Amino acid sequence: MRFSDLVHLCRQNLFRRKSRTILTVLGVVVGCCSIVTMVSLGSGIDEQNKQMLASMGDLTIITVTGANNTGGMGMADGSGTATARIDDKAVKDFRSLQYVAGATGHVTYLDAILTAGPANRYVDQNGVIEAIDMTQFDAMDYQLDSGRKPNRQGDVLAGQYTAYDFIDSLRPESDNFRMRPSYLADSCTPEQRAEGCEDKSDAQDPFFNILTTKITVGAAQTDDSGNVASSSTPTASNGQTTEGSGSGTQIQVSGLLKEDNGKGQATSSGLLMDIATLKDLVAKIHPDAAAGTLAYDSALVRVQDIDHVADVESQIRTMGFTTSSSRDMLDSLKEQTRSIQLILGGIGAVALLVAAIGIANTMVMSVTERVREIGIMKALGCTVHDIRAMFLVEAGAIGVIGGVIGCLVSALISLAINLIRYGGVSAEHLQWAILGNGTGDEAARISVIPWWLYVFAIAFATLISLISGFGPANKAVRVPALDAIKSNQ
Fold first, then answer.
1. Is the pLDDT score of 410 beyond 50?
2. Contact between residue 459 and residue 353 where contact means Cβ atoms under 8 Å apart
3. Which regions are flagged for Low complexity bias (predicted)?
4. pLDDT digit string (tens) for 9-38?
5. Which end of the chain is less congested by CB atoms within 10 angstroms, N or C?
6. Domain range for residue 112?
7. Is this prediction's pTM over 0.70?
8. Based on the domain organization, do 271 and 369 belong to the same domain?
9. From CA 36, how far away is CA 446, in angstroms rounded?
């Protein structure tokens, strides 16, 4: 019997008892829909976790520390638990590793004070300066918020919120700072405002435009505990720096970085420059420190894909370095999400198993009602394999039809859940709900259905249907041809 004949008989037999077939398919639809919807909620949790980690920084960045880790002062002291030192050769070796997109040495210099504006009235007592190899700027995927990329020696970049770190030394303490917009609430109710709540509508611009105002970098003097005691610039009567001395040096910021804590504090608050530029700057503002060796306190390695972070970390550790990344936290969150998906998927699978009972019942009834037909088919020369295949095709068709309809219903349910989360219906909302390509908090959907889940659901529903129909199909082939012809059914 040809496959086309099996399909024709399948369609004919399924439509012979339409009500029973529809109810059986409906059971598969409910079971399949339960599995897809439940697992999609777990996938939504996974997407929310990824977005949360992404807000903390680039998930493909690995921070490498070595024996010359200096704790952030940029001066080599030989401390650290790693056995190898981070130097230019080590950084070059990192770049040669498989799956590595870029690598750079990283230096953090904290012994500075930043001032700006007329008579240096705007002051940042805790200036953070970080340095990397600027030739790796694009490879490390640094992003600009405004301004231009560093394309020449001496270019200095500022973090997205660096300007908000400056206080106005001529204003009273209650009004001498500007709050970062990221620190403000999305919205405040009248009751919350009465209690002092501020939202993003209250955000104020910083005191000056950091892209058009030169910044003076001076050396901060620290006490024995490491706290800033004084600076190389004179101070006003309130103890804050107001104007620079000859030991300070001026720099011009060419662009603002987008905040990415995975690439260092300077992307949010501080200055980022080339390592050679930092060496020149330290030589001018802090000659005694320049007498030492300005060394890498860490290295940043960017991997091509987050799935390869573990492999690259393993290779770097075998070279004698210690590493840290967001991978461990992501793996922990994935493990929790996987457990949730298994629980939710198990609940949905119960519904599909109940549907399997309905399929088995339908096929048993079909065999009982078609005993005479089976006998005639055997008398006409149909083999045992043909008859078994006929019933299995019918059972499989129920699973495929139910699985496809269940997936379509699940997609609509997922879309509705996400649109309710978004709070509106438009072309933009639909695109976000389906593709998840929104921005900000809206980028995390509640329900996410990956393509493989549709394939799995249809395949699982078909498999359950075939297993349920196997028993009745074997029953059909065991019916003796002569007894079957004599049957009234």
1. yes
2. no
3. 237-251
4. 777 777 777 888 888 888 888 888 888 888
5. C
6. 106-294
7. no
8. no
9. 13
- Enumerate residues 6+ apart whose C-beta is below 8 A from 428: none
Residues 48 and 115 in one domain: no
Asked whether the beta carbons of 362 and 398 are under 8 A apart, the reply is yes
Query: 405 and 357: one domain?
Result: yes
- Residue 138 φ/ψ, nearest 5 degrees: -70, -40
Q: Is residue 115 in a domain?
A: yes
**Number of domains the chain contains:** 2
Phi, psi of 418 (to 5 degrees): -70, -35
Tell me: the pLDDT tens digits for 330-366?
A: 777 778 777 887 887 787 778 777 877 877 777 777 7
Q: Which of 221, 238, 218 is nearest to 282 (CA)?
A: 218
Q: For the packed helices 309-318 and 327-369, what is the interaxial angle rounded to 10 degrees?
A: 140
> How many residues appear in the chain?
489
Q: Could you identify the residue written with the tokens 């950084």?
A: 91
Q: Look-up: residue for tokens 């001496």?
A: 154
- The 10 Å Cβ neighbour count of residue 489 is 11
Convert the pLDDT of each residue in 240-267 to its tens digit: 333 333 457 888 999 999 988 788 888 8
Final residue in a domain of this structure, among 294, 312, 340: 294
| Residues 436/445, Cβ–Cβ less than 8 Å | yes
Residues 273, 394 within the same domain: no
Quote the tokens at residue 262.
């995975």
Q: What pLDDT, on the 0 to 100 scale, is given for residue 12?
A: 77
- For the CA atoms of 480, 481, 485, 489, the dihedral, rounded to the nearest 10 degrees, stands at 50
Q: Is there a single domain that holds both residue 338 and residue 210?
A: no
User: Per-residue confidence at 140, pLDDT binned at 50, 70, 90?
Assistant: very high
